[in-house]
């Protein structure tokens, strides 16, 4: 019974060994410097001590959201491209191509809208 | 090739709406925020075309529906009924936006764009048997609604409304998705038809089979999905967002939330419940379970209408009062779903249609009144009846209809709901609903009292003929439809809706 | 004349629509239209009463019938028989009197007369409707104008009185609605089943072969045959341990009893009466209360005779409580109008007692009492209106000796009071005596005791009316009112026809009884459970 868990045990040992080994190696071989910043916990570039209700520029979110939006939408092009041949064989290649052109056009209108409203310029 | 175009033709109304939304957005961009009324007119034209297409579709459909887009989209009279009313209410809401004195007159192209987007969401939500597309439609509707609720960026109330709405909405969407994922895990399909009855070789397991094996996970999944719908139609205990969002959102948006969004939610709810437990061909072993779900809905209906009405009693703001009243009305409509019969579903559909008429009217009155006084509390209505008699009497018609008194469509709707419920053995629920309409009289007629019974206070004598005209027409429709005028088409349509619900197992199974 | 009932019913509606198009300032034209729109139905009703109506028949007459809302199997079905014809005529008369009686009202006259006419449509509609759906629609149509008439033109506490009236009546009518929905479902299933029993029960009516699920005659026929028991409903004729017929009976009865009003549902009445303007009080007491009594014998008892049979003694007890309690409370009032309002509760108690007894005398007496109370109560409210217009208060103790300065007014008032307290020779005596004798004759146990108790009511009624007369008219003249004007010609003209009826029907009551006799006989036959 228990022997079935053997591989897991080995895995745990390997993981712990790897982590501990790395720490030991860097302690032995690494160059030692010390600074205040270095002792801090690393939090995505934010200061780890201070008011949690920190204000960020709205553009930060806006750009992030826009990026995700266009990124995910253009991802759709990949499955389309993969299956385009199949549709071609079915004899509906033209329609399917028109559809994807329409889709890209919608994206284009969206981009124009965002651009025009100033969503892409940081200064406004 | 032609078959493809034909299939596309089935979703022509949706395509027109999509094109319209893009057109509206682009035009507003090109006009650089000058007068937006033209965009309103363009929206109206687009909606008219959509409505015309839907009517054509209604005629072509016949008793049975059809499917397109690999079974993702189901076009039947049930869905088309709701689409027609969504378009109708959208048109009225568009007019409200154009006539709203408290709204900017320029640079509000997004307003129309978001409204159209919301109705596209509603369209797909009511015309699919597939839970995935249903969820997508619901989310599209919701996202547009969140932005619309916060459309008045400068107003704290509006921002609060949007935030509350999105938090509640996100939560309930999560709950619902969890339910859907459980259903998918249990049955191996997202198609409601296959869940109801899975033929050999379809690769799916019908819900009935799973229910016989392990009832509790099925129950949990169904209840979770129902909770998502309950949020959308603001059924207690998922109603908390309603008064705050309704109050904070711009009033035309509130109108859309109370009318279009709620009806779409009910349509999806009815289709879900119908496909799993009611439609012909559903596996017999789960129908009995459907009765228990019906009982659950009956209890929710009783609580919802009672709580909605009691809360409405103490409201000082007309807008909040209407919000609570819309909760109460959700309870009435739920009676139809709870009866778990086609008659009950038809009654719910008819009541929703009635609810369109009277609530559009009541909210239109609110917009008029806000335009005149800039306030929305009932006490400020004093003397309205003497200064704006046409509008005020129209409002009395809507109040009478909302209370459910003859000779209005509100009474007619309530009557057939009562039939369906008593016929389904829910006499106790009918008695509760009847008592509730007495309670509701008290707060509805506080408005009438304020308008007519108290001495007038000085007001700016301003008239809005356009809005007054719309209200008049709605009032006349409310009465005529209640008298069953012109061979009672509304009732006929509503009756044909549930009949068109069916299982598309053959189409779906061949995939 | 074809469609005479529809004409009578909808002429006021035409008048109302006409008024809506008259400019607000042109009050004389508005009043003229209102007079015409109430006068023409009166003419038609009189013609109907003496000319067209066949008083030897118990059948429905002047029937208009066609399918209205097919989806509900509801019909537009109007007709008239001996039970309703007198009340239709009384409605026409009182509404016609109501218009000149309202000439003193100066506030928003256009809306006032329009609402008054709408109210008339509702009242006529209830009296002539033979389809329960139609009946219910008209029943509710009355509420709205009444609410506004009390609420806008009423006294200081009009808002409270108006909403109280509305809430009470609506509470009753939603119960009616629930019963109605259940009845309709049962009717539908029975008629669709088409069994031999159903066919034979319907064979005497015009409903055979028509899918009129709301038809009141059809309900009466099936109810009389003992078929309308709810056995086709999901709960199979038995709901929460009580029979379907019992539920339906009580739901319908309470709906109508609130309107009558029967103790303990009467508390809206004094408020509504006191706050309403005089003409509206007249219509309220004269007609609207009768709707309750009429509804019971038309659309409650015959449909569920079993329920009536089971609980008739309870109804008799409620009637007696209303008689004695109403009179006793009236005795304690200092407000003239409130006193009259409570006297209405007392007088309408006779109606319930007479009906509960289920004898021919009792039932005829009840029908007669409804008519007679319609005239005498109307007179009393007009009397109160006259003094209120002059003195601007109604405190019975605040007058005194008015007989010296207002002799004509005193004479008319005396006549009205005597008619109300049932002086022999006047109309009230005949009907009250008939109900009491009818109740005494009743073979059912216990009714003799009820009659004996209710005689107490007559004594108290005489007491409070005579005491009121003494306080207002006799004694030393209150110096405040030494210059008060006597009753004017318009006010006399309003009261005169009603007082004439009080005397005339006191001497020749068969001018009503002959018309209702066949219908009453049929009603009693329908109500007798084998």
Task: Kindly describe this structure.
The complex is a heterotrimer of chains A (124), B (511) and C (530). Chain A is 68% helix and 0% strand. Chain A is mainly alpha-helical and 124 residues long. Chain A has two domains: 2-32; 58-116. In chain A, helix 4 (77-90) runs antiparallel to helix 5. The mean pLDDT of chain A is 83. Chain B is mainly α. Chain B has one domain. Chain B has helices at residues 2-10, 12-31, 37-61, 77-99, 109-126, 131-149, 156-187, 192-196, 207-213, 215-232, 241-248, 251-278, 284-313, 318-338, 342-373, 384-387, 389-403, 409-423, 427-453, 465-482, 489-499, 505-509; strands at 66-68, 73-75. Chain B has a two-stranded antiparallel ribbon with strand order 1-2. In chain B, strand 1 and strand 2 form a beta hairpin. The longest helix of chain B is centred in the middle third of the chain and has 32 residues, at 156-187. In chain B, 63% of the residues are buried. Chain C has helices spanning 4-20, 27-52, 85-101, 109-128, 132-141, 143-153, 158-193, 196-202, 216-224, 244-259, 268-275, 278-299, 305-331, 336-357, 360-391, 402-405, 407-421, 427-441, 447-473, 489-507, 510-527, and strands spanning 61-69, 74-80, 238-239, 242-243. Chain C has a two-stranded antiparallel sheet. In chain C, strands 3-4 form a two-stranded antiparallel sheet. In chain C, helix 5 packs antiparallel against helix 7 (158-193). Chain C is globular. The interface between B and C is large, with 41 and 39 residues.
Features:
heterotrimer, A: mainly alpha, 5 helices, 0% strand, flat, B: 511 residues, mainly alpha, two-stranded antiparallel sheet, 22 helices, 2 strands
The number of E-state strands of chain A comes to: 0
Number of β-strand runs of chain B: 2
The overall pLDDT average of chain B reads: 86
The tally of domains of chain A stands at 2
Which chains make the largest contact?
Answer: B-C, 41 and 39 residues
Largest sheet geometry of chain A: none
Number of helical runs of chain B? 22
SS content category of chain A: mainly alpha
Query: How many domains make up the coordinates of chain B?
Result: 1
Distance between the termini of chain A: 67 Å
Oligomerization category of the chains in this entry? heterotrimer
Measured between the Cα atoms of the first and last residue of chain B, the distance is 19 Å
Strand content of chain A: under 5%
Please state the CA-atom Rg of chain B, rounded to the nearest Å: 22 Å
Helix % of chain A is 55-70%
Largest sheet of chain B: 2 strands, antiparallel
Structural class of chain B: mainly alpha
Structural Rg of chain A? 26 Å
């Amino acid at each position: 019974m228990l022997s079935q868990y053997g591989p897991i045990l080995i895995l745990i040992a390997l993981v712990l060994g790897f982590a501990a080994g790395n720490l030991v190696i860097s302690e032995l071989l690494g160059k030692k410097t010390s600074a205040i910043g270095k002792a801090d916990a690393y939090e995505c570039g934010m200061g780890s001590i201070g008011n949690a209700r920190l204000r960020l520029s709205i553009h930060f979110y806006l750009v992030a959201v826009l990026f995700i939006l266009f990124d995910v939408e253009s991802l759709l092009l990949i499955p389309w491209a993969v299956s385009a041949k199949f549709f071609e064989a079915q004899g509906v290649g033209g329609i399917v191509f028109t559809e994807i052109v329409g889709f890209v056009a919608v994206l284009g209108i969206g981009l124009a809208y965002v651009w025009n409203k100033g969503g892409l310029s940081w200064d406004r | 090739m032609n078959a493809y175009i034909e299939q596309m033709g089935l979703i022509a109304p949706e395509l027109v709406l999509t094109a319209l939304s893009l057109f509206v957005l682009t035009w507003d961009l090109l006009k650089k925020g000058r007068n937006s009324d033209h965009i309103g007119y363009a929206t109206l034209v687009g909606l008219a075309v959509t409505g015309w297409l839907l009517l054509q579709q209604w005629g072509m459909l016949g008793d049975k529906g059809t499917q397109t887009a690999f079974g993702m989209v189901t076009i039947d009279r049930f869905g088309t009924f709701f689409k027609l009313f969504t378009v109708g209410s959208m048109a009225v809401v568009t007019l409200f936006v154009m006539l709203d004195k408290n709204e900017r007159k320029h640079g509000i192209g997004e307003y129309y764009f978001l409204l159209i987007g919301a109705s596209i969401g509603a369209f797909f939500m009511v015309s699919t048997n597939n839970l995935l597309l249903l969820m997508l439609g619901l989310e599209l509707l919701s996202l547009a609604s969140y932005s619309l609720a916060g459309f008045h960026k400068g107003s704290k109330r509006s921002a609060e409304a949007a935030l509350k709405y999105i938090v509640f909405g996100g939560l309930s969407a999560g709950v619902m998705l969890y339910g859907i994922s459980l259903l998918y895990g249990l049955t191996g399909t997202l198609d409601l038809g296959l869940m109801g009855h899975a033929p050999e070789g379809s690769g799916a397991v019908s819900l009935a089979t799973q229910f016989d094996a392990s009832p509790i996970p099925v129950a949990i999944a169904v209840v979770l999905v129902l909770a998502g719908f309950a949020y959308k139609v603001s059924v207690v205990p998922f109603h908390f967002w309603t008064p705050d969002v309704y109050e904070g959102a711009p009033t035309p948006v509130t109108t859309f939330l109370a009318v279009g969004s709620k009806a779409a939610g009910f349509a999806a709810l009815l289709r879900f419940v119908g496909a799993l437990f009611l439609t012909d061909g559903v596996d017999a072993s789960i129908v009995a379970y459907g009765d228990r779900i019906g009982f659950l809905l009956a209890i929710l209906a009783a609580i919802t209408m009672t709580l909605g009405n009691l809360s409405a009693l103490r409201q000082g703001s007309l807008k909040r009062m209407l919000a609570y009243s819309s909760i109460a009305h959700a309870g009435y409509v739920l009676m139809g779903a709870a009866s778990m019969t086609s008659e009950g579903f038809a009654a719910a559909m008819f009541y929703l249609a009635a609810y369109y008429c009277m609530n559009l009217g009541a909210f239109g009155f609110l917009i008029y009144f806000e335009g005149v006084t800039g306030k929305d509390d009932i006490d400020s209505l004093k003397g309205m009846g003497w200064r704006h008699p046409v509008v005020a009497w129209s409002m009395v018609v809507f109040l009478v209809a909302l209370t459910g008194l003859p000779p209005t469509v509100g009474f007619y709707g309530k009557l057939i709901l009562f039939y369906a419920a008593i016929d389904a053995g829910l006499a106790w629920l009918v008695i509760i609903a009847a008592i509730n309409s007495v309670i509701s009289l008290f707060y509805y007629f506080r408005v009438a009292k304020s308008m007519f019974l108290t001495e007038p206070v000085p007001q700016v004598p301003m008239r809005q003929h356009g809005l007054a005209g719309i209200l008049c027409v709605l009032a006349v429709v409310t009465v005529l439809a209640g008298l069953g005028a012109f061979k009672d088409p509304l009732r006929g349509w509503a009756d044909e809706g549930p009949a068109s619900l069916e299982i598309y197992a053959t189409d779906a199974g061949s995939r | 004349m074809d469609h005479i009932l529809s004409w009578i019913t909808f002429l006021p509606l035409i008048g109302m629509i006409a008024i809506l198009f008259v400019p607000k300032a042109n009050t004389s034209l508005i009043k003229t239209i209102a007079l015409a729109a109430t006068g023409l139905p009166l003419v038609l009703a009189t013609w109907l009463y003496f000319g067209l109506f066949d008083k030897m028949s118990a059948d429905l007459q002047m029937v208009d019938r066609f399918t209205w809302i097919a989806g509900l199997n509801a019909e537009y079905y109007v007709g008239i028989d001996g039970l309703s014809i007198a009340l239709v005529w009384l409605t026409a008369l009182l509404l016609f009197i109501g218009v000149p009686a309202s000439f003193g009202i100066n506030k928003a006259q256009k809306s006032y007369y329009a609402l008054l006419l709408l109210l008339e449509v509702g009242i006529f509609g209830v009296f002539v409707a033979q389809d329960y759906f139609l009946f219910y629609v008209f029943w509710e149509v009355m509420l709205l104008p009444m609410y506004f008439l009390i609420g806008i033109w009423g006294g200081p506490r009009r808002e409270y009185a108006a909403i109280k009236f509305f809430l009470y009546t609506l509470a009753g009518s939603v119960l009616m609605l629930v019963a109605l929905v259940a009845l309709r479902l049962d009717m539908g299933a029975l008629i669709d089943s088409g069994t031999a029993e159903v066919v034979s029960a319907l064979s005497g009516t015009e409903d055979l072969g028509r899918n009129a699920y709301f038809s009141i005659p059809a309900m009466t026929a099936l109810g009389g045959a003992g078929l309308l028991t709810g056995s086709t409903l999901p709960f199979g004729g038995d709901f929460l341990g009580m029979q379907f017929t019992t539920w339906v009976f009580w739901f319908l009865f309470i709906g109508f009893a609130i309107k009558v009003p029967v103790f303990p549902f009467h508390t809206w009445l004094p408020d509504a009466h006191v706050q309403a303007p005089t003409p509206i009080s007249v219509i309220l007491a004269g007609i609207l209360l009768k709707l309750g009594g009429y509804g019971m014998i038309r659309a409650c008892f015959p449909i569920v005779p079993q329920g009536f049979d089971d609980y008739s003694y309870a109804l008799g007890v409620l009637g007696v409580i209303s008689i004695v309690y109403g009179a006793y409370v009236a005795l304690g009032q200092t407000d003239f109008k409130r006193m009259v309002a409570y006297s209405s509760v007392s007088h309408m108690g006779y109606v319930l007692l007479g009906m509960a007894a289920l004898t021919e005398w009792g039932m005829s007496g009840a029908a007669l009492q409804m008519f007679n109370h319609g005239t005498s109560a109307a007179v009393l409210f007009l009397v109160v209106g006259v003094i209120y217009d002059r003195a601007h208060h109604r405190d019975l103790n605040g007058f005194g000796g008015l007989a010296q300065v207002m002799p004509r007014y005193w004479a008319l008032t005396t006549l009205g009071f005597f008619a109300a307290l049932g002086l022999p020779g006047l109309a009230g005596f005949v009907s009250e005596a008939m109900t009491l004798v009818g109740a005494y004759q009743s073979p059912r146990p216990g009714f003799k005791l009820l009659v004996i108790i209710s005689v107490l009511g007559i004594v108290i009624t005489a007491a409070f009316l005579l005491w009121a007369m003494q306080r207002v008219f006799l004694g030393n003249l209150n110096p405040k009112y030494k210059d008060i004007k006597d009753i004017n010609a318009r006010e006399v003209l309003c009261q005169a026809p009603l007082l004439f009826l009080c005397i005339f029907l006191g001497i020749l009551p068969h001018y009503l009884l002959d018309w209702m006799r066949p219908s009453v006989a049929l009603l009693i036959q329908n109500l007798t459970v084998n």
